[in-house]
Amino acid sequence: MGCNLSDQTVVPVKPKVVDDVGNDTPDAPNTSDASDTSEDEQAPDLCLDVDCSNHGICSAASGSAMCNCEAGYEGEDCSTCSDSYRASGDDCVAMVFCDEASCGENGSCDDTSGAIACTCESEYAGDRCETCADGHFLSNGQCYRNIPCDEADPCGAYGTCEDSDQGVTCACDEGHDGARCDQCAATHYLVNESRCVLRASCDADSCNNRGTCSDATGVIDCTCTATYGGERCEGCYPGYVLIGSTCQIAQNCQPGSCFGNGTCDDDSGLVVCSCEFGYGQPNCQDCATGHTGAGCASCKAGYSMSSTGCTNICADGLLVAPELCDDGNTDPSNGTTDFCSSGCNFHNWPDGTWPGYMPPNVHGRWTNISINNNPSRYMRVAAGSSLSLKGHLNYDATTSGCNGCINQFYLGFISSDPDNNTDPLEGKHQRCDNFVGSTSRAIDSTFTAPTEPGTYYLRYRHDWDYDCNQGLRRPGIGNSLFVIHVD
User: Domains along the chain?
Assistant: First the structure.
């Protein structure tokens, strides 16, 4: 081992004193003066008889002999292993410790001796359990015992077993592979979790030039173009007939015209299907919107069953059981996707664009808001209908913006920002209250809905003035108490 001076341990060593015949003698004090040394007499070599156990170098630079030990060694003669080192024969080697990779997944590790010692599972061998034990073979990354052919059939139903000095080997049937014929060859695919079948490949004629072909699963899968049908697009789609070399819509009822889910009528010269309940037009092949399940007899989440079929109940301005609120939206940062109603994940507002989030507590002032006893904050109403607003209002009645002014709250309908509506009630307040001396009150007021169809926000504005002014000054969307759609 080399000498690493930075890690050397320096140990002073006491030199030996010998007499004229070479015998050790007790240490004697030095009573001579250095000046008495003869010019012909040389100083003794203090390291001459110092033993550093072949793991250090003796030095007398300090006036006494001492061993500079190599890394991993210590003691007066460098014969002892340092901490974190252990003896290995005549050498000291660094201790090593177990980690997850020491013996892999097939053995347990012990480092109490300072060295890695692996105890392998019965199927594995090697210093780190990296190979199969005698009498075992490797398959799919694992070691298995070689079972003699006469003890059992290790090759299964798709291979022939052969014994040899090296263990059992399997001659696999066509399409099967692996050490025990338990895999499919690359040219085959698995059917019914047992049998390997030759993969089919698309060619120009696979779908009769009437559709697109896919062989990703190992079988031919045709997606036929409109009017064509059949496993390989060899025939016409139900309701179509072959005229010449092309499939054209039948002008009279054909078997399968309505897929067995409706009745066919061709009295008008065209095929018309009257679909059974739950099935949709034009040919009764698929479930109608909102329907699902066997016979299309159930409603999807977000739909409610009625006499006419499944009706969308999500964000339509109508509060229908089991909805907890109409829009279902509970997150002001996301106006379209977070819904409180079970099953609602989309909106169906009549104008097509979701009108936005209505917070449950507007500016910390308005709470328990409802119109016509509907607390959902979204509602569809008839043009010019009477609307009853209820809620609770807290406000600051002490801070005045001008001398002699009164505390006022305005309520009215706003259609959009900016205004694009000509209804005479749009942008005009329908209530102006002079609140003097109080800070909290219940609100119970009646409003008239606008007559022009569209979406309107009932908004409030707080102001200080000498009297009520007709202009609402268009408060922003954050002041919205309710949103309605005039049908």
Answer: 1-17+45-95 (no CATH), 107-145 (no CATH), 156-198 (2.10.25), 211-249 (no CATH), 250-311 (no CATH), 366-486 (2.60.40)
